[in-house]
Amino acid sequence: MDAGTAGSIISTWFSKVADGFSRGDPLELPLPVLLLIAAAAALLTVPRPVWRWFGLFVTFVHELGHAFAALMTGQLVKGIQLRFDHSGQMRSMGRSRFAAAWTGFWGYPVPAVVGALLVWAAFNGWAGFALSAGALVLLAGLLFIRNAQGLLIALGCTTVSVLLVWFASPNAVSYVTLGTGLALLAGAVRDWFNVLSVHTRRRRSLQSSDAFILYQRTGVPSAIWLAAFAAVIAVSVVAALWWFRPATG
Predict the structure, then answer these.
(1) What are the two backbone dihedrals, phi and then psi, of residue 241, each rounded to the nearest 5 degrees?
(2) Which runs of consecutive H residues, i.e. helices, occur in 3-47?
(3) Does residue 198 contact residue 208 with C-beta atoms inside 8 Å?
């Protein structure tokens, strides 16, 4: 492929991304189809063999949440590491205790918040916007990856997003946006129960818990941080159900 062809492909793709930044038709589907989409989201998060792969995407969103929170407080993001065991780490540079706490908090809740926003976007005609913005965020996230496993995970997630922007029809974009939103919500709930088990049954892994790291940084007990994670996730789930409600009649 010569430089001219590559440039044309990139230009066409960015044109499709730009086309997504406009409002389309709100999603209107019969209840059986909506239930099928919800079932597909459950299949991504409940069976262990499938979760092994989809959970990597949830972890990527988790670490991007930390990175975005760090940037919000003026910190320098040094890099993100992702691993096939669903663990990850985001390193940032900053001295403020508040900045460290803010950054550490926005990991587990972020997949739920993003999931709820995707559900809202699907039902309000902004699915194309969500897909285009998500593709750009994932592409930008590649710049922060600092390990080989993480690069493979991030490339896989980004490739799927890029291909959806290129090939998916408007209806398919709405279906994928809704399904991904529901799956991220379910994934956030699953991950919260996983970190809870670290504090109750698998304490040898305590050093990997965001709640424990926040306790070390702030002195606020881990239980408070776990409850705060749960509160944001619960609000996100309730919001998504509220936005889902009109579609169920």
Answers:
(1) -65, -35
(2) 3-20, 31-45
(3) yes
